[in-house]
Amino acid sequence: MTDAEKTGFRQEYRRRRRELPALERAAQSAALTDGALKLLAERKQQAENTGQPWHGRVASVMSYGAEPDTGQLHARLAAEGVEVYVPVSLPQRQLGWVRWFPSVAMERSAVAPIEEPVGERFGVELMSRVDVVFVPAQAVDPAGYRMGQGGGYYDRFLAQLSEPTPLTVAVVYTHELVERVPRDEMDRPTDAVLTPEGLHWSVRTEH
What we know:
globular, alpha/beta, two-stranded antiparallel ribbon, 30% helix, 12 strands, single chain, eight-stranded mixed β-sheet
């Protein structure tokens, strides 16, 4: 697939996301929140049953625009004592991570037109102490390959993960789980996909 075709694919799914009615977006976001909380409860129980470490930390994007709303998920996790870390944009299209909590101060990013939390910034090494990373996507396929915004931030981040790695989960609306997403050698898949209907393990993933 050419760059122009990839751009067209991305634009099409951006358009479909924007055109999803607000009430439908809210209903699907609520279902995604419930699914994420269910997944975390199951992973915690599994860790306790097997003696594996459970850190009580989650990394998740702060949604904006027509993206699936993560605000309620973050609030519920914080209320339950789970530490929530959200990405901040760094130079050279890298991601850092800052602790989020309901009263955290926000400021304009130095490298992107968004508001980001103020606080200590962590690098990818934090992920060895994180249980689950919820990854944004415009669309994703059953193998876990995703179409992002086009900046490559998350593909670089996923490529930098090393053992022990957190579970990586792409989060999308129902229509955004598609047969196949265009990909190239830079793209990195997630371990699973979360839709309002539930969790879908990536077809190549053992769990």
